Amino acid sequence: MKIVLTCGDVNGIGLETLLKSADVMSSSLYFKDTEFYLSCNTQSLLEYAKKIGYDIEILNERVIVSDHYMKILECDNYSPVHFGKVTRNAGSLSVESLEKAIVHTLNHKFDALVTLPISKESAYLAGFKYPGQTEMLAEKSKVASPLMILFKDDLRVALATIHEPLRTVPDLITKEKLTALINQFNNSLKIDFGIDKPKIAVLGLNPHAGENGKIGMEENTIISVALEQLKTEGVLVHGPYPADGFFAHGDYRNFDGIVAMYHDQGLVPLKLLAHGTGVNFTAGLPVVRTSPDHGTAYGISGKGIASPDSLIAALISAVKIVKARKNHKN
Hints:
Blueprint: E1 2-6, H1 14-27, E2 35-40, H2 42-51, E3 56-59, E4 62-65, E5 68-74, H3 88-106, E6 112-114, H4 120-125, H5 133-141, E7 147-152, E8 155-159, H6 169-172, H7 175-191, E9 199-203, H8 218-232, E10 236-241, H9 243-248, E11 257-260, H10 263-274, E12 279-283, E13 288-292, H11 309-329
Parallel strand pairs: 1-2, 1-6, 2-5, 6-13, 8-11, 9-10, 9-11
Antiparallel strand pairs: 3-4, 4-5, 7-8, 7-12, 12-13
Helix pairs in contact: 3-5, 7-8
Protein backbone atom coordinates (compact mmCIF):
# COMPACT_ATOMS: atom_id res chain seq x y z
CA MET A 1 0.00 0.00 0.00
CA LYS A 2 1.21 3.51 -0.82
CA ILE A 3 0.15 6.59 1.14
CA VAL A 4 1.05 10.17 0.26
CA LEU A 5 1.06 12.97 2.83
CA THR A 6 0.90 16.67 2.09
CA CYS A 7 3.17 19.03 4.01
CA GLY A 8 0.41 21.44 5.01
CA ASP A 9 1.43 24.90 6.21
CA VAL A 10 5.14 24.88 7.10
CA ASN A 11 4.59 27.65 9.66
CA GLY A 12 2.29 25.40 11.68
CA ILE A 13 2.59 22.13 13.58
CA GLY A 14 1.88 19.71 10.72
CA LEU A 15 5.43 18.68 9.88
CA GLU A 16 6.31 18.46 13.57
CA THR A 17 3.54 15.91 14.09
CA LEU A 18 4.80 13.99 11.05
CA LEU A 19 8.39 13.85 12.29
CA LYS A 20 7.15 12.71 15.69
CA SER A 21 5.10 9.96 14.00
CA ALA A 22 8.12 8.43 12.25
CA ASP A 23 8.86 5.78 14.89
CA VAL A 24 5.26 4.55 14.83
CA MET A 25 5.20 4.58 11.03
CA SER A 26 8.27 2.32 10.95
CA SER A 27 7.32 -0.06 13.78
CA SER A 28 3.51 -0.41 13.85
CA LEU A 29 2.05 -3.60 12.37
CA TYR A 30 -0.64 -1.39 10.78
CA PHE A 31 2.02 -0.13 8.36
CA LYS A 32 3.83 -3.42 7.77
CA ASP A 33 3.47 -3.28 3.98
CA THR A 34 3.00 0.48 3.59
CA GLU A 35 5.21 2.92 1.68
CA PHE A 36 4.96 6.58 2.64
CA TYR A 37 5.53 9.58 0.39
CA LEU A 38 5.70 13.24 1.39
CA SER A 39 4.69 16.01 -1.01
CA CYS A 40 6.97 18.84 0.08
CA ASN A 41 9.85 21.13 -0.77
CA THR A 42 13.11 19.58 0.43
CA GLN A 43 14.71 22.86 1.49
CA SER A 44 11.66 23.87 3.54
CA LEU A 45 11.55 20.44 5.17
CA LEU A 46 15.23 20.58 6.18
CA GLU A 47 14.80 24.09 7.55
CA TYR A 48 11.70 23.07 9.53
CA ALA A 49 13.41 20.03 11.06
CA LYS A 50 16.49 22.03 12.05
CA LYS A 51 14.39 24.70 13.76
CA ILE A 52 12.63 22.16 15.99
CA GLY A 53 15.79 20.15 16.68
CA TYR A 54 15.18 17.10 14.49
CA ASP A 55 18.13 15.46 12.78
CA ILE A 56 16.92 14.34 9.36
CA GLU A 57 18.75 13.41 6.19
CA ILE A 58 17.73 13.69 2.55
CA LEU A 59 19.25 10.91 0.45
CA ASN A 60 18.21 9.64 -2.99
CA GLU A 61 14.90 11.55 -2.89
CA ARG A 62 14.09 10.15 0.52
CA VAL A 63 13.84 11.80 3.91
CA ILE A 64 15.31 9.68 6.68
CA VAL A 65 14.07 10.20 10.25
CA SER A 66 15.54 7.85 12.87
CA ASP A 67 15.15 4.42 11.24
CA HIS A 68 12.23 5.43 9.03
CA TYR A 69 12.24 6.89 5.55
CA MET A 70 9.67 8.52 3.31
CA LYS A 71 10.05 9.16 -0.38
CA ILE A 72 9.86 12.80 -1.41
CA LEU A 73 7.40 14.08 -3.98
CA GLU A 74 9.31 17.29 -4.65
CA CYS A 75 7.49 20.64 -4.76
CA ASP A 76 8.99 23.63 -6.56
CA ASN A 77 7.75 26.32 -4.17
CA TYR A 78 10.23 26.93 -1.35
CA SER A 79 8.86 28.60 1.76
CA PRO A 80 11.04 29.95 4.55
CA VAL A 81 9.80 28.68 7.91
CA HIS A 82 8.34 31.44 10.11
CA PHE A 83 6.48 29.69 12.89
CA GLY A 84 3.08 31.15 13.66
CA LYS A 85 3.09 33.56 10.73
CA VAL A 86 0.71 33.92 7.80
CA THR A 87 2.84 34.10 4.63
CA ARG A 88 2.16 33.83 0.93
CA ASN A 89 5.16 31.51 0.48
CA ALA A 90 3.77 29.03 2.99
CA GLY A 91 0.41 29.24 1.25
CA SER A 92 1.96 28.59 -2.17
CA LEU A 93 3.81 25.52 -0.93
CA SER A 94 0.77 24.10 0.87
CA VAL A 95 -1.39 24.50 -2.24
CA GLU A 96 1.23 22.97 -4.57
CA SER A 97 1.73 20.08 -2.16
CA LEU A 98 -2.00 19.40 -2.07
CA GLU A 99 -2.48 19.70 -5.84
CA LYS A 100 0.44 17.39 -6.58
CA ALA A 101 -0.74 14.77 -4.08
CA ILE A 102 -4.32 14.87 -5.39
CA VAL A 103 -3.28 14.46 -9.03
CA HIS A 104 -1.03 11.47 -8.32
CA THR A 105 -3.64 9.82 -6.07
CA LEU A 106 -6.38 10.24 -8.67
CA ASN A 107 -3.97 8.70 -11.20
CA HIS A 108 -3.70 5.63 -8.93
CA LYS A 109 -0.08 6.14 -7.92
CA PHE A 110 -1.20 6.13 -4.28
CA ASP A 111 -3.87 4.21 -2.39
CA ALA A 112 -4.65 7.00 0.05
CA LEU A 113 -4.02 10.67 0.72
CA VAL A 114 -3.42 12.13 4.20
CA THR A 115 -3.49 15.92 4.36
CA LEU A 116 -1.74 17.98 7.00
CA PRO A 117 -3.45 21.24 8.05
CA ILE A 118 -3.17 24.38 5.97
CA SER A 119 -3.71 28.03 6.85
CA LYS A 120 -6.56 29.16 4.63
CA GLU A 121 -5.43 32.77 5.09
CA SER A 122 -1.97 31.93 3.75
CA ALA A 123 -3.47 29.81 0.97
CA TYR A 124 -5.78 32.65 -0.08
CA LEU A 125 -2.74 34.92 -0.42
CA ALA A 126 -1.40 32.34 -2.89
CA GLY A 127 -4.60 32.32 -4.93
CA PHE A 128 -6.41 29.39 -3.29
CA LYS A 129 -10.10 29.68 -4.19
CA TYR A 130 -11.77 27.03 -2.04
CA PRO A 131 -13.34 27.17 1.45
CA GLY A 132 -11.07 24.30 2.46
CA GLN A 133 -9.06 21.30 1.31
CA THR A 134 -12.20 19.13 1.17
CA GLU A 135 -13.80 21.33 -1.47
CA MET A 136 -10.65 21.32 -3.60
CA LEU A 137 -10.51 17.54 -3.43
CA ALA A 138 -14.14 17.35 -4.48
CA GLU A 139 -13.64 19.55 -7.54
CA LYS A 140 -10.51 17.73 -8.67
CA SER A 141 -12.34 14.41 -8.18
CA LYS A 142 -15.42 15.70 -10.03
CA VAL A 143 -17.60 14.97 -7.01
CA ALA A 144 -20.43 17.45 -6.45
CA SER A 145 -21.18 16.69 -2.79
CA PRO A 146 -18.41 15.19 -0.66
CA LEU A 147 -19.30 14.18 2.88
CA MET A 148 -17.13 15.32 5.76
CA ILE A 149 -16.99 12.70 8.54
CA LEU A 150 -15.01 13.18 11.72
CA PHE A 151 -14.59 10.20 13.98
CA LYS A 152 -12.91 8.66 16.98
CA ASP A 153 -13.27 4.89 17.20
CA ASP A 154 -17.05 4.19 17.05
CA LEU A 155 -18.10 7.84 17.31
CA ARG A 156 -18.65 9.10 13.76
CA VAL A 157 -20.11 12.51 12.93
CA ALA A 158 -21.16 13.60 9.44
CA LEU A 159 -21.92 17.23 8.63
CA ALA A 160 -24.97 18.36 6.66
CA THR A 161 -23.14 21.64 5.97
CA ILE A 162 -19.38 22.14 6.18
CA HIS A 163 -17.64 25.51 5.90
CA GLU A 164 -20.71 27.74 5.70
CA PRO A 165 -21.57 30.94 7.60
CA LEU A 166 -24.05 30.10 10.33
CA ARG A 167 -26.68 32.52 9.01
CA THR A 168 -26.86 30.58 5.71
CA VAL A 169 -27.26 27.12 7.25
CA PRO A 170 -31.09 26.93 7.55
CA ASP A 171 -31.56 27.67 3.86
CA LEU A 172 -29.06 24.94 2.97
CA ILE A 173 -31.00 22.25 4.86
CA THR A 174 -33.55 20.79 2.45
CA LYS A 175 -35.36 17.47 2.36
CA GLU A 176 -33.64 16.51 -0.88
CA LYS A 177 -30.14 17.37 0.33
CA LEU A 178 -30.68 15.69 3.67
CA THR A 179 -31.96 12.43 2.21
CA ALA A 180 -29.07 12.32 -0.28
CA LEU A 181 -26.53 13.06 2.45
CA ILE A 182 -27.87 10.43 4.87
CA ASN A 183 -27.93 7.83 2.10
CA GLN A 184 -24.32 8.74 1.32
CA PHE A 185 -23.41 8.44 5.01
CA ASN A 186 -25.21 5.11 5.24
CA ASN A 187 -23.25 3.79 2.25
CA SER A 188 -19.95 5.04 3.65
CA LEU A 189 -20.59 3.34 6.99
CA LYS A 190 -21.10 0.09 5.08
CA ILE A 191 -18.29 0.42 2.54
CA ASP A 192 -15.61 2.43 4.37
CA PHE A 193 -16.22 1.26 7.94
CA GLY A 194 -17.51 -2.27 7.31
CA ILE A 195 -20.78 -1.89 9.25
CA ASP A 196 -23.45 -4.19 7.82
CA LYS A 197 -26.58 -2.39 9.10
CA PRO A 198 -25.62 1.11 10.30
CA LYS A 199 -27.81 2.83 12.85
CA ILE A 200 -27.83 6.61 12.29
CA ALA A 201 -28.93 9.46 14.57
CA VAL A 202 -29.85 12.88 13.19
CA LEU A 203 -29.59 16.05 15.29
CA GLY A 204 -32.09 18.90 15.11
CA LEU A 205 -31.21 22.31 13.73
CA ASN A 206 -32.79 24.42 16.48
CA PRO A 207 -32.38 24.38 20.28
CA HIS A 208 -34.28 21.47 21.82
CA ALA A 209 -34.85 20.19 18.26
CA GLY A 210 -37.43 22.94 17.81
CA GLU A 211 -39.75 21.82 20.65
CA ASN A 212 -42.40 20.75 18.17
CA GLY A 213 -42.37 24.03 16.29
CA LYS A 214 -42.10 26.43 19.22
CA ILE A 215 -38.43 27.29 18.52
CA GLY A 216 -38.32 26.71 14.78
CA MET A 217 -40.12 24.62 12.21
CA GLU A 218 -37.27 22.94 10.32
CA GLU A 219 -37.46 19.78 12.41
CA ASN A 220 -41.16 19.32 11.54
CA THR A 221 -41.22 20.49 7.94
CA ILE A 222 -37.84 19.26 6.64
CA ILE A 223 -35.83 16.94 8.88
CA SER A 224 -38.61 14.63 10.11
CA VAL A 225 -40.07 14.40 6.60
CA ALA A 226 -36.68 13.35 5.22
CA LEU A 227 -36.24 10.75 7.96
CA GLU A 228 -39.64 9.20 7.33
CA GLN A 229 -38.82 8.82 3.65
CA LEU A 230 -35.47 7.22 4.45
CA LYS A 231 -37.11 4.74 6.82
CA THR A 232 -39.38 3.54 4.01
CA GLU A 233 -36.21 2.92 1.98
CA GLY A 234 -34.74 0.71 4.69
CA VAL A 235 -32.30 3.16 6.26
CA LEU A 236 -32.03 2.74 10.04
CA VAL A 237 -32.30 6.43 10.88
CA HIS A 238 -33.61 8.09 14.06
CA GLY A 239 -34.26 11.62 15.28
CA PRO A 240 -34.21 14.54 15.18
CA TYR A 241 -32.55 14.76 18.60
CA PRO A 242 -31.70 17.87 20.66
CA ALA A 243 -27.92 18.10 20.23
CA ASP A 244 -27.03 19.12 23.80
CA GLY A 245 -28.84 16.32 25.59
CA PHE A 246 -27.86 13.78 22.94
CA PHE A 247 -24.18 14.14 23.79
CA ALA A 248 -24.53 15.06 27.47
CA HIS A 249 -26.56 11.92 28.26
CA GLY A 250 -24.36 9.60 26.24
CA ASP A 251 -26.98 8.73 23.62
CA TYR A 252 -24.29 8.88 20.95
CA ARG A 253 -23.03 5.51 22.18
CA ASN A 254 -26.14 3.82 20.76
CA PHE A 255 -25.45 4.76 17.13
CA ASP A 256 -22.92 3.96 14.40
CA GLY A 257 -23.16 7.44 12.91
CA ILE A 258 -24.50 10.89 13.76
CA VAL A 259 -25.58 13.63 11.35
CA ALA A 260 -25.05 17.19 12.62
CA MET A 261 -26.66 20.13 10.85
CA TYR A 262 -23.62 22.41 10.95
CA HIS A 263 -19.90 22.41 11.66
CA ASP A 264 -19.64 23.34 15.34
CA GLN A 265 -22.76 21.43 16.39
CA GLY A 266 -21.03 18.16 15.55
CA LEU A 267 -17.35 18.91 15.89
CA VAL A 268 -17.25 20.61 19.30
CA PRO A 269 -18.55 17.51 21.14
CA LEU A 270 -16.55 15.13 18.95
CA LYS A 271 -13.27 16.92 19.58
CA LEU A 272 -13.98 17.10 23.31
CA LEU A 273 -14.63 13.35 23.39
CA ALA A 274 -11.73 12.48 21.08
CA HIS A 275 -9.11 14.16 23.32
CA GLY A 276 -6.89 15.12 20.41
CA THR A 277 -7.09 11.80 18.53
CA GLY A 278 -9.97 12.46 16.13
CA VAL A 279 -9.75 11.85 12.39
CA ASN A 280 -11.28 13.74 9.47
CA PHE A 281 -12.40 11.54 6.56
CA THR A 282 -13.90 12.71 3.28
CA ALA A 283 -16.50 10.20 2.10
CA GLY A 284 -17.90 10.02 -1.40
CA LEU A 285 -14.57 10.49 -3.18
CA PRO A 286 -13.01 7.95 -5.54
CA VAL A 287 -9.88 8.09 -3.35
CA VAL A 288 -9.35 7.64 0.39
CA ARG A 289 -8.52 10.91 2.16
CA THR A 290 -8.01 11.37 5.88
CA SER A 291 -6.46 14.13 7.99
CA PRO A 292 -5.86 14.98 11.64
CA ASP A 293 -8.71 16.81 13.37
CA HIS A 294 -6.65 19.88 14.28
CA GLY A 295 -5.48 22.97 12.44
CA THR A 296 -2.11 24.66 12.06
CA ALA A 297 -2.03 25.57 15.78
CA TYR A 298 0.13 28.64 15.20
CA GLY A 299 0.08 29.37 18.93
CA ILE A 300 2.30 26.36 19.69
CA SER A 301 4.13 25.94 16.39
CA GLY A 302 7.89 25.69 16.71
CA LYS A 303 7.74 24.92 20.44
CA GLY A 304 8.12 21.17 20.07
CA ILE A 305 5.01 20.37 22.11
CA ALA A 306 2.54 19.34 19.38
CA SER A 307 1.01 15.88 19.76
CA PRO A 308 1.22 13.45 16.82
CA ASP A 309 -1.69 11.33 18.08
CA SER A 310 -4.32 12.64 15.66
CA LEU A 311 -2.02 12.23 12.67
CA ILE A 312 -1.13 8.68 13.71
CA ALA A 313 -4.85 7.93 14.00
CA ALA A 314 -5.42 9.45 10.54
CA LEU A 315 -2.69 7.26 9.03
CA ILE A 316 -4.04 4.09 10.66
CA SER A 317 -7.57 5.01 9.55
CA ALA A 318 -6.42 5.51 5.95
CA VAL A 319 -5.00 1.98 5.93
CA LYS A 320 -8.17 0.54 7.47
CA ILE A 321 -10.49 2.32 5.02
CA VAL A 322 -8.45 1.23 1.98
CA LYS A 323 -8.69 -2.36 3.20
CA ALA A 324 -12.41 -2.01 4.00
CA ARG A 325 -13.13 -0.79 0.46
CA LYS A 326 -11.20 -3.71 -1.02
CA ASN A 327 -13.06 -6.18 1.21
CA HIS A 328 -16.39 -4.68 0.17
CA LYS A 329 -15.55 -5.08 -3.52
CA ASN A 330 -14.64 -8.71 -2.94
